[in-house]
Specification:
7-stranded parallel sheet; alpha/beta; 34% helix; globular
Length: 249
Amino acid sequence: MLKEERYDKILEILDKEDYASAAALSERLFVSLPTIRRDLRELARRNQIIRSHGGAKKIHAEHIVAPLNFRKTVNSAEKRALCRVAATLAGDNEIIFIDSSTTTLQMAEFLDEKKQITVITNGISLATLLIKKGIKTYLTGGEIFENSLAHFGSFAEDFIRRFNIDTVFFSCHGVNDKGMLADPSLPETQIRRVAIAQAKKTVFLCDKTKLSRSTPYNLTHISSVDTIITDTSALKDFLNQENRLIVVE
């Protein structure tokens, strides 16, 4: 059986059963356990399955990372309003990190009046916009993910660790019912985790469509973020006195 045929069979099994162990898949497809494990790693890399407890689970629609061009069109006006406010929190002469999310993408439009600002990003689309504005920009490098048009992995993470970052501006897939910031992509979650660890201040951008979304990978609780910029007051229930909540009308 060819590799792509095995991938299709694995997805077919998971579509019917939701979960299967690597050992069971090995027996059913008549291939070795190491081969099945390699197959599962590849399918997970393609964001078609979730590795779980020695096997794999079907990936549900809410866990899928949609293509960048599609995500850019969702709530574009709301995201633009959040980005306009976020840009006011970036100071002159600062080193800032902006993640590759479509929510933060439009910040590039509002940073050109800042003096001597330096931006680090793993987002290729964002870096292109910043360069056109004449803003000093560092692109992390590393493996490129097609759906996000962004760099991820150990190379990108090590690059970020070279900088003392003043402020991180980021978003994610959503906020779950416990106030955890979560995302369907482990590499994207890890990039944000590294950037946050290097930063003095954190700013989270969140439009109301991101509320009550449950995805596999937790980044941090929203109460650990310094400033939250949003278009809904619902997030205040998760915050404490140390958080700054900016609600954009």
